[in-house]
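Structure in, sequence out. Go:
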């Protein structure tokens, strides 16, 4: 089996509402890239990458250029065996891990289809029956965040990520966590996430203010 064709689509995905994160970062549209690797046997492997602007060191508009750079090396190769391109990404291009991930995903998809095995088997086996969903609550006014949490709870969600740090105010962040916890009651998992947007002082103050709550804090 040889890879004979590479096709890449770029699609703008617009959210139904603006996403608010720490330090005033906002996001309403992200660019998603979808890759298809075709082979001479008719099998196709698919991958996707959708970097979040202002957050991770991954430039969405650089994906097409990176894929174009790697394409001459990947075309004609087999997606299986010791010479599979998924094992040789660094030989084709240094860095740019987000761009390599879309190719890697498509290659693993091809591998699974060629062997007629699910990816969880190829990657070591299934470790759990179900994967619980969580709802990410944008960082806005505490009462609105509590409303969003209550609505998500009604749909069956039992894990809640509370975005923090939009206004660099530890007291308001504590209020966000308190009101979301009150909205969903005891039991569901609730954790706050600054997306690396808080100072040590802000995070410490917020942590002390909610020390009586059953919550976790992530990425101060």
């Amino acid at each position: 089996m040889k890879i004979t064709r590479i096709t890449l689509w770029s699609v703008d995905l617009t959210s139904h509402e603006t996403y608010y994160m720490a330090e005033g970062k906002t996001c309403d549209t992200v660019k998603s890239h979808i890759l298809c690797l075709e082979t001479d046997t008719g099998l196709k492997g698919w991958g996707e990458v959708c970097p979040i602007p202002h957050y991770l060191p991954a430039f969405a508009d650089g994906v097409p250029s990176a894929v174009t750079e790697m394409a001459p090396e990947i075309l004609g190769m087999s997606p299986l065996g010791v010479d599979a391109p998924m094992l040789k990404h660094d030989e084709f291009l240094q860095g740019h891990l987000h761009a390599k991930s879309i190719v890697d995903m498509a290659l693993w998809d091809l591998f699974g289809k060629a062997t007629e095995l699910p990816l969880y088997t190829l990657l070591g086996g299934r470790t759990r029956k179900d994967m619980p969903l969580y709802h990410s609550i944008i960082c806005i006014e505490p009462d609105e965040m509590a409303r969003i949490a209550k609505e998500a709870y009604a749909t069956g969600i039992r894990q809640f990520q509370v975005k923090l740090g939009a206004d660099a105010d530890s007291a308001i962040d504590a209020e966000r966590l308190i009101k979301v916890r009150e909205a969903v009651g005891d039991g569901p998992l609730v954790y706050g996430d600054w997306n690396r947007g808080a100072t040590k002082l802000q995070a410490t103050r917020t942590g002390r203010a909610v020390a009586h709550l059953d919550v976790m804090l992530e990425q101060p």
